[in-house]
Write a structure and sequence with these properties.
The longest helix has 29 residues. With about 400 residues, this protein is an alpha+beta fold. It contains 8 helices and 23 strands. Strand 19 and strand 20 form a beta hairpin.
Length: about 400
């Protein structure tokens, strides 16, 4: 009776093990779980413990679960104990995790970085607590400053020059002290925060309007290749900030792209942040004729020009039509006070209310003008005589 009871209990446990292991078995296919399987057998062998040799129900259950987990977790031979089960199962999970990580890595590799999006192959980012970082003509603190970087501006690293990097940023190419630049992952992390949509002008001169309409007032003008951070784009117009104002430019005449902030030109360094590139360009263009001849009635910037011929030719290059007369030119602009003057505005001089001379304001209290036969075209203090009036021709 005892033997029958023992066999009945063992049979019940075997049935339970079969369900757990999701397999079937027959008494003829049993083997001892303490020995390894040496033949190519079916999963039925997974719960094949000799019933008469089973010590108790726990051993039988362990054998069944072990086989089931082993075959499910990985294509390996039947495990002989619990530690092998864990190993086999972990190996399967590791394979799965590795595949997932590989897929994620592939996706990340296909997503361009901020540097790649903006066209940089060797990105550097400026890191300064205050002020500006000078870009110099040569790798020396004695060299001429040709541009500046502010905090978190991007540059392309062209050359390692000891304590300096040769860089290009925006329209400036020169040398920057290494201690104020970061590279690699640190530069990329900053770039991810600073990347913006930028509109680059692709026409000679583009009006900035007060509203999204060609009938709206002109606030300012911007020149070819100037780039502006985009506030928004709607209805074919791009909202930008220029000369401390918010205005709109036609989307038809700009190229939109993702970009990083870059260096300021030397013109912006000279004339300040409130001066657009068009105004800076007017001044730069005018200054290149300093030293040339004064000729009364002349209109040639190279061969000889008088004061009103000088202003007529300089502003004429930027689409402003003026007569060859200093007395008549003020009526073609908008009268402003001298304290409001910006580079590109005209100062008029004379006796009493009678105008006889005109000059171009270049900022910092100075003018450039075709002065007289002795001095030719030169730079002077804007208040070398009291101006009768000041007029503006370039929109703001």
């Amino acid at each position: 009776m005892k033997n029958k009871l023992k066999l009945g209990q063992a049979a019940g446990v075997v049935a339970f093990a079969i369900i757990i292991g999701a397999v079937s078995m027959s008494s003829s296919s049993t083997v001892d779980a303490r020995t390894s399987l040496k033949e190519n057998r079916t999963v039925n062998a997974g719960v094949a413990l000799g019933l008469t040799e089973a010590a108790d129900a726990t051993e039988l259950l362990t054998a069944g679960v072990t086989s089931a987990l082993t075959y499910y977790g990985a294509d390996v031979s039947v495990a002989q104990n619990d530690s092998n089960v864990v190993t086999a199962s972990a190996q399967g999970a590791q394979v799965g995790n590795t595949a997932q990580e590989t897929e994620q890595a592939n996706e990340a590799a296909q997503t361009p970085t901020a540097a790649q999006t903006c066209g940089y192959t060797n990105l550097g980012m400026s890191v300064i607590s205050s002020g500006n970082l000078n870009i110099r003509q040569e790798a020396s603190t004695d060299s001429e400053v040709i541009g500046i970087l502010t905090n978190h501006n991007a540059c392309e690293l062209l050359e390692d020059a000891g304590e300096w990097y040769k860089v290009t940023s925006g329209k400036v190419t020169g040398y920057v002290n290494k201690q104020y630049l970061v590279t690699g992952d640190e530069a990329e992390a900053i770039a991810e925060q600073e990347i913006k949509t930028v509109a680059t002008v692709n026409t000679e001169t583009l009006n900035v309007r007060a509203e999204k309409s060609t009938e709206a007032a002109v606030l300012s003008q911007v020149g070819n290749s100037e780039a502006f951070t985009v506030n928004s784009v709607a209805d074919g117009w791009v909202e930008i900030s220029v000369d401390d104002s918010v205005g709109y430019i036609s989307q038809d005449y700009v190229t939109l792209a993702q970009a990083l902030p870059t260096a300021k030109t030397i013109e912006q360094v000279k004339y300040g942040d409130g001066v657009s590139d068009v105004r800076a360009s007017v001044v730069s263009y005018a200054l290149q004729f300093v030293g040339n001849r004064y000729v009364w009635g002349g209109t040639s910037l190279e061969k000889g020009v008088d004061c009103s011929g000088f202003t007529m030719r300089i502003l004429g290059k930027y689409g402003i039509s003026l007569p060859h007369s200093s007395r008549a030119q003020p009526s073609y602009g908008t009268k402003i006070s001298a304290s409001e003057a910006k580079p590109g505005d005209l100062f008029f001089y004379g006796s009493g209310r009678s105008i006889s001379h005109v000059a171009i304001y270049i900022g910092n209290g100075q003018i450039v003008h075709a002065s007289n036969k002795r001095d030719g075209i030169k730079v002077s203090n804007a208040y070398y005589r009291n101006p009768i009036c000041v007029a503006r021709y370039l929109p703001d």
